Amino acid sequence: MNDIVRIEPGPRMSQAVIHGGLAYLAGQVALDAPGASVTEQTQSILARIDTLLAAAGTGKERLLTASIWLAGIASFAEMNAVWDAWVAPGAAPARATVESKLAAPQFTVEIAVVAAT
Question: Can you give the residue range of the structural domain that contains 39?
C-alpha cells in the first residue's frame, strides 16, 4: 500500500503531496516578492519549488511536467530567461504555459510541477 505524504498541509491545500512515486506541487506564486518584476517573481517561485522538491526527496532533474500561468503573455520571454537558466540540462519537463488572470493582481506568474521521487 502506498502512503500519501502531505508537505505543508493547510485547511485548503497542501503545498506538495507525495504518492505512488510522484511529488505533486501546488501552484506556487512569489509570496516573498508580490508586485516585483516577472524575473524576480519567477526566481522566487523556482527557489520555492527547489525547497519543496527537496522536502519531497527529489529535485528539478526529476521533473515530469510543469504548468505555468502568466498574467500577461507578453512576459513569456522574460519568464523563459529565468526558467532556461534554472531547468536541469537535459531534463526539461513536458510543459504548458498560458496567459491567465491570477488570483491576486500583485502576482504575475504561477508555476505548478510534478516530479518523480
Answer: 5-116
Which CATH number fits the domain that encloses residue 88?
Answer: 3.30.1330.40
pTM: 0.96
Closest CA to 96 of 82, 112, 85, 81: 112
Look at the alpha carbons of 53, 59, 62, 66 in this order and tell me if their dihedral is positive or negative: positive
Per-residue pLDDT 10s for the chain (117 aa) are 569 999 999 999 999 999 999 999 999 999 999 999 999 999 999 999 999 999 999 999 999 999 999 999 999 999 999 999 999 999 999 999 999 999 999 999 999 999 999
